[in-house]
Amino acid sequence: MVGSGIFFTSGFLIKETGNVWIVLLCWLLGGILALTGSVTYAYAARLLPYAGGDYVYLKVAYSPAIAFMSGWSSLLTNFSASVSVLALAFGQYVLFLFPSIPKWSSPSFTVLGLDLQVGTQTAIGILPILFFSTLNYFGIKSAVRVQNVFAVLKIIGLLSFIIIGFSLGNTNWSYLINETLPNLSDTNLFKKILIGIVPVSFSYLGWNMITYIAEEVKSPEKTILKSAVTACVLVCALYVSINLLFLVSAPAEKLSGKEGIGAIAFEQLFGGDYAILTTGFIAWVILGSLSAILIGGSRVYFAMARDGVFLPNFSKIHRKHHSPYISIFFQAVVAILFCLVKEIESLLYMITCSILILSCLTAATPIRFNKMGFESDYKIPFYPWPIVLYILSNLAVMYVLFSEKPITAIWGLVITLMSLPIYYLFRLDKKIQKGVANDTNLSP
Q1: 82, 304, 422, 426: which could form a disulfide with 310 (CB 3.0–4.6 Å)?
Q2: Which DSSP helix (H) or strand (E) runs through 111?
Q3: At what angle do helices 9-17 and 20-47 cross, to 10 degrees?
Q4: How far apart, in Å, are the Cα atoms of 93 and each of 42, 126, 141, 339?
């Protein structure tokens, strides 16, 4: 759940909201929404403790088509596009580390309202996608070993930065204290908060990951809810602390709109002598997040193909390395294509729009299960208000997103809805194949 979005999303937040107090509020509200989502998802996980998370709940509550929509969005936006966001962020931080690298960029061109461009940042970002995909090709064991190293050093480093930053860093609390408090009478305040929650939601992704492995969790009836709630509270505290450190490191105008807000903040806190160390660490965290998504995402393509709702070749396993190699490199190709999007910000909005649509459907499954006659020993606290709060908040964010960022929001919606005709095409193909097989068996 602790990812690298914390190191580049706040720059967009400051630009969009125009007030650092709103930025902190957005990170706090993002944690509260993740918490309400976790207690809601826990009901479905307790009722159906099987591997697959959203895919399983949506299939039982609604239909296989809706479940396929979730899987499709996962492999195109939740995973592949997320990898691209991280890859581009990594490219930006490498340029911070090595300013002497020649910078170039192609002329930008627009496809259906989306700005595309290739440049130095793109080329650098593609390298880790190829590296970790190749590592995955050689088997899960080597990939997991590398991932474990990333994870341990990431947590140690983040906690160290917070402690050292506040105790020894060049903090200046006047940057925050002298900032004007949000005007509660401002009619645009609510809109600013909602649009600010969009990139925050990206950074909180992962609070529901335990539901994907519910089948493998010991005592899921006790573990799932406790783990999800604990994770949401701790990560929210971590994210708010890190952002507070960012905001007392430099004036807001110096951080606003910057993709490399983490590097800028740490250079202000510790000086140029430690810039390489701190920026290098941020790049390390980004690589760890990118590696984790590539490991999990490629297995989604593989599982869907094995279930007969994706291209059959994607279910193939390498004879020697036992890896879903076609799925791995297909994911790499899709992620590289998303790297052509000119701005990370556009990708963030696209991903979040797709996720929020399906999150609303999943959050409503407890109500659906109750109507279907399912019973569980777990009762959602203050039912049904956490569900109502979570869904209404997501709908409000989507409304503002479509109002303020219509092109990227529509892209997210289109990618999600594309799943339905594709699902029925696979269904039709299976029926045709089954009919051919039956005819063959009946022939003399």
Answers
A1: 304
A2: strand 109-111
A3: 120
A4: 37, 14, 29, 15
Q: Is the dihedral of CA 131, 132, 133, 135 positive or negative?
A: positive
Beta bridge partners of 341: 116
Q: Which residue has the tokens 């592949």?
A: 80
SS3 362: helix
What is the three-class DSSP state of 118?
coil
Rounded Cα distance between 349 and 259, Å, is: 15
Whether pLDDT at 221 is above 80 = no
Burial of 96 from C-beta contacts in 10 A (0-12 / 13-18 / 19+)? buried
User: Is 252 within 8 Å of 179 (Cβ atoms)?
Assistant: yes
Which alpha helices (DSSP H) does 260-384 contain, by range?
261-270, 275-306, 325-338, 344-363, 365-371
List the single range of 41-50, 61-70, 128-137, 386-395 with lowest mean pLDDT: 41-50
366-379 burial: b if 16+ Cβ within 10 Å, else e: bbbbeeeebebebe
Could you tell me the two tokens for 440? 């063959």
Helices (H) and strands (E) in the chain, counts: 19, 2
How far is 45 from 67, CA to CA, in rounded Å?
A: 15
User: For residues 268 and 307, which has the higher predicted lDDT (pLDDT)?
Assistant: 268
What residues pair up with 115 in beta bridges, in sequence order? 110
Residue 354: closest CA among 390, 309, 401, 307: 401
3-state class (DSSP) for residue 321: coil
Residues 313, 315, 318, 323: what is their CA dihedral angle, to the nearest 10 degrees?
140
Q: From CA 248, how far away is CA 436, in angstroms rounded?
A: 69
Band of the pLDDT at 300, cuts 50, 70, 90? Answer: low
User: For the chain, first and last CA: distance in Å?
Assistant: 59
Strand partners, 111: 114
Average pLDDT estimate for 364-387: 87
Q: In this structure, are residues 223 and 56 in contact, taking their beta carbons and an 8 Å threshold? A: no
Q: Is 219 left (phi over 0), alpha (psi -120 to 50) or beta?
A: left
